[in-house]
Design brief:
313 residues, mainly alpha, 2 domains, 14 helices
């Protein structure tokens, strides 16, 4: 090119400059992409939040699932709660309104059975929502997501706690909705206070933490959703009926009262009724809080320890 003249030399120089310019531009793009690549976060909080938010998103972006989860407690409140009118039974036996209220107060700790049942329905929602926390582990294993999560730097304990926390979030949200519906249907609000409502939901939070941890533990080695459903049915109904959710424990047989007195659902109902209805706590509000705190902490700790040993691909 040099021997053919100045024009060829200029053309070659321009071509080389163009190639160098394109190479520089490509290098700049590669460098920009490299710089824009996000850093891998190894924070346990980041992994815990990411997994928890993943499960919660599947719930709050599906309104049909949310509505369906509310149908059963609302039916219990609207049909069972209103149909089983103990006030009418007592009124049929005679006596003044004050005497009837005294009988109801002595039996239920409140003059409204509907209000008594409404508090029990809050624990009912927590119980049945927490029971399905283990199914999330089973389906993640069957569809391969659990294997992917176990291949990341996220700790096994964080994987388990994310299942527990998503269940707790769902439980508390649904319990709040049930409380609003109960108030609309006629629940007694004369003893409501901001502090009392907050404390009641702290109690519900502790119950949900413990129960969610329990059901997640049962799912650690399970790959069959039918087995998990069977476990839920075996545990949930005894926990519900062997508690003071529907009727006072003092009216139950002596042998059943022993079961009621170790049932965490009973301590939850006892505290929630004391905080929302102003009734006297049978076990004592401090005892309820300590019992449920221990229940939640112990089961969470056991769940994390078992995940180290049994959670595998």
């Amino acid at each position: 090119m040099v021997e053919t003249g100045d024009g060829k030399i200029a053309e070659a120089s321009g071509s080389n400059a163009q190639v160098e310019s394109q190479s520089s531009a490509a290098a700049g793009v590669r460098e920009k992409r490299f710089r824009a690549a996000p850093k891998l976060s190894r924070s346990p909080i980041h992994g815990l939040w990411s997994l928890t938010n993943r499960d919660l998103r599947k719930w709050y972006t599906n309104p049909v699932q949310l509505i369906a989860s509310m149908i059963q407690p609302v039916i219990w409140l609207a049909l069972f709660g209103k149909a089983l009118n103990f006030g009418a039974f007592i009124a049929g036996a005679g006596g003044s309104q004050a005497e009837q209220n005294a009988v109801l107060m002595g039996f239920f700790g409140t003059t409204s059975y509907f209000s008594y049942l409404a508090c029990g329905m809050l624990a009912f929602v927590i119980l049945f929502t927490s029971a399905f926390s283990g199914l999330s582990v089973v389906f993640d294993r069957r569809f391969g997501f659990l294997n992917k999560a176990l291949s990341t730097p996220v700790a096994r304990g964080s994987i388990i706690m994310s299942k527990v926390l998503q269940s707790v979030g769902r439980s508390i949200a649904q319990a709040a909705m049930v409380l609003i519906i109960a108030v609309v249907l006629g629940m007694d609000t004369s003893h409501f206070s901001i502090l009392g409502i907050i404390a009641a939901f702290v109690i519900l939070f502790l119950m949900s933490m413990g129960l969610s941890s329990l059901f997640v533990m049962f799912a650690l080695r399970s790959g069959d959703w039918q087995t998990q459903i069977a476990i839920i049915n075996v545990i949930n109904l005894p926990l519900l009926f062997a508690s003071n959710a529907l009727f006072p424990a003092k009216e139950m047989p002596a042998w059943l009262q022993g079961v009621v007195n170790i049932n965490p659902v009973s301590y939850t109902n006892d505290a929630v009724r004391s905080l929302l209805l102003g009734s006297t706590a049978h076990y004592g509000l401090a005892v309820d809080f300590v019992y449920l705190t221990g229940f939640a902490l112990v089961l969470c700790a056991i769940g994390v320890v078992l995940s180290w040993r049994f959670l595998s691909k």
